[in-house]
């Protein structure tokens, strides 16, 4: 094993012609298995899939709004717009629409990611390790799923695969063009996922920590250029979002009608309401009027308005912040994700209330506006009120995250199977307690590989990528898709571990030359055969949970915004199942 560790530390030859050929092979195989997975699926016409719905319907609606010049989500910058812009550039389209072609483009992006991952690995690791890492990326079931659902994880993974080698190159040979390119890719990644800003900050810290004083000036220039280009990439959307937030505060189509209320509003009370942001006036006039009528109060005064709102919501409506970078939902997500009733996954318990708007976000309601505008303070109160409970929630979040990095291989998701639970706004993972041996082995392999890979700068930066996603998971929702979005980071560590362990075994047991190549070839053949078998002889499945027909995506399309359980249909099951 010592020799294997030394091999990790040795200089790597430049990428040669065989490496480009291998990258092409990986691209072709990855594209082939993903298209096979897509084209034989019953959900190929939908924007989402049975295994992963996520926000795909939202991105389609967002894209249509952009293409048609219409406002979406009150025209506020709630979601990062990257995927919506990509789809609007590909479109526009009319609904219902066959999304198979667009999904095929996602498969193409996923295959490019595999090829780019091999070359990125090859820049820092030997060919054997790089081939194994790329093979794990090629047949990762999680990447099959993200490649066949129009969400942001697929293009985001490509950005991550580009960022790592660019970062290492920029550290070794600082230069303005390279730094500008790195900033451009960071900008694209941030437009896809707003939390990527944290990785930019951690990248700057990585530069600073690993830089010797003698080289700091050159590195500082590169960092400054990278950050400037990153900021400029996001600036147009930031300006647009700030202007939209200002308009939302100052104008509204809904004007309070005091004359039709069941109680009398004094002039002072009306002036008090007019201090509220425009979007919050009509709803609060209606609510306060109703509350006063229920209490038998005939006249509404400013003191009465304050008393009712503080009693019911502990909050007086304030304008939303007009300082927006990419997304304005960070505070809301932090509060929702750390609510005492949150189980570690996506949860809307904090939005629940006794009023007709239910758990849908409604910024005219002070309770929801408080979470949207002041969610970080609210979330922190949840955490400090019961730290032990919060730590238990964090444990569940990490468990959900780990379920994404321990998915199986091939279209069959070997050895787990294409069954399990699909938590809200997440992709399918194993059921609790299922495939414990496999999942434990994957986690251990990743840890061993990280130990050995840490000896190289690229290995350390891949660890930074994983750390960034873990921090996001702890602070926000526990999504398996967070781990799937950085699958190459796990794949290279697992490959390093396998190569190191097999080298140690080879020192004890003398094996014929190219035994490892023969084993890998057999595994690849078996996985491809399994993909073909799964495509043409799929096991029927049953969806247990709240399901809604979605005819706008096609006659047989369904959606579900809650937890689903996907189970196989037994041969002797009745037709009613």
Topology:
Blueprint: H1 2-9, H2 17-39, H3 56-67, H4 82-90, H5 100-122, H6 127-138, H7 141-147, H8 153-172, H9 176-192, H10 196-210, H11 216-250, E1 264-265, H12 267-274, H13 278-295, E2 299-300, H14 302-313, H15 330-337, H16 366-385, H17 387-405, E3 420-422, E4 428-429, H18 436-453, H19 457-475, H20 480-484, H21 487-508, H22 515-536, E5 541-544, E6 548-549, E7 558-559, E8 564-568
Parallel strand pairs: 1-2
Antiparallel strand pairs: 3-4, 3-8, 5-8, 6-7
Could you give a quick summary of the protein structure above?
The protein has 577 residues and is mostly helical. Helices cover 61% and strands 4% of the residues.
Structure description:
This protein is mainly alpha-helical and 577 residues long. The protein has helices at residues 2-9, 17-39, 56-67, 82-90, 100-122, 127-138, 141-147, 153-172, 176-192, 196-210, 216-250, 267-274, 278-295, 302-313, 330-337, 366-385, 387-405, 436-453, 457-475, 480-484, 487-508, 515-536; strands at 264-265, 299-300, 420-422, 428-429, 541-544, 548-549, 558-559, 564-568. Mean pLDDT is 91; it is low at 1-11 and 573-577. The protein is 61% helix and 4% strand. The chain has a four-stranded antiparallel sheet, with no helix packed on it. It has 22 helices and eight strands. Helix 5 (100-122) packs antiparallel against helix 6 (127-138), helix 6 (127-138) crosses helix 21 (487-508) and helix 15 (330-337) crosses helix 16 (366-385).
**Tell me, what's the shape?**
globular
Largest sheet descriptor: 4 strands, antiparallel
Counting DSSP H or I runs of 4 or more residues, the number of helices is 22
Helix content: 55-70%
Determine the N-to-C terminus distance: 53 Å
Structural class: mainly alpha
Q: How many extended strands?
A: 8
Alpha-carbon Rg, integer: 26 Å
Low-confidence stretches: 1-11, 573-577
Task: Spell out the helices and strands N to C.
Answer: HHHHHHHHHHHEHHEHHHHEEHHHHHEEEE
What is the arithmetic mean of pLDDT?
A: 91
Sheet with most strands: strand arrangement = 4-3-8-5
> What is the oligomer described by this structure?
single chain
Strand content: under 5%
